[in-house]
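Ticket #4471: structure output looks truncated?

Reporter: J.K.
Steps to reproduce: submitted the chain below (364 residues) through the standard prediction queue, then opened the result file.
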Amino acid sequence: MSKRGLLFLSAVAAGCGADRYLVGVSADGGVDGAMMEPPDLRSSPSPDVVNQPDAVVAADRTPVAACSYGAAPIPVRRVAITQQVLASRLSRFIIAGTGIPDGPWSGATTAEVETSVRDWFGSTEPQHLTPHALGVIKFFPAWLGAAPGQFSVIGAFTSGRGGLQRLLTGTFGPPAEQRLGVLSDPDVLTTRAHASTRGTWLQNNLMCMQLPPHPPSIPPPPRPAPGSTYRQTLTRQTADPSCQGCHRLIDPPGFAFENFDERGRFRTMDNGLPVDATGTFTVDGRQVAFDGPANLMTALASSCGVRECFVRRWMEYALGTSGRMLKPQDDAGVREVAAAFAASGDNLFELVVAITLSQPFLAP
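Returned output as attached by the reporter:
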């Protein structure tokens, strides 16, 4: 399909409510209209108070230290799925099912897939993603659990400027508000209104840490007690050892965002007292001290483990648009894509290409 054709289909889809009504590819290769939502990549239920005794945070997969996934190119391999499945996966992931991709999909190799994917974007060189990449852009609200109202940071990332560092630490908004990176977007902050939920999301979705399930009955988020900040009240309420098993782990990174209230508004005072946004948190085995989000987000943006987790969440999304789950045996493929992403300078266009060439994407 030509680039002009893709742009036309995107415009038609946009006019028909493209965020919900998507045209897919049926099993026999035909066009199939369907109601399809992007997969939900939000963390599992993340309560404000988790009080399981002796809870332990475990990684989804063993973290990779010192970017040990290397920088080897993705090898040329045969495609192990049918041409219909491949065409459907490419369509749903990249262009949200708004067209049928052309290509020699029967018995194709990754080299042929790469040529076709790059041709969709009109270049054989790394470049920014063009506006018709509807499926790719839908990753961000699926990952963040919200549609950010401030798109300057995401826009810079999708256009190939600044990479993961820019996405997580780029400044925007009025200077006095000190907004830093996409996690400081008001709409994103509102979906996780307190330190515990913010810390839980950060560890689940930036570090791929799996927190224990919360108990069936938990108290509501505390309101600041008279003469206390929210942080002081939360600290007292969760001081019991049965609470600290989790809260000592999930709360610290959330405290970095204490300068933003439950509605995402910037503040320096809480309940008449100065906000305390200080703390320490371990990133790649080292303690990072912070006062506000700057130091913490800078450390996370340069973390090898965070880059691999970001790639993992992307691959879960890419496969999830077609109903395939990422499996434990896909770990080598995740590291392969992480290496390609790092080698490209965290270029989103190259990440999309690498995912389409990866063993998990091309396997049943």
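Triage note (M.O.): checked the attachment and the full token line is present. The longest helix spans residues 304-320.
Status: closed, working as intended.
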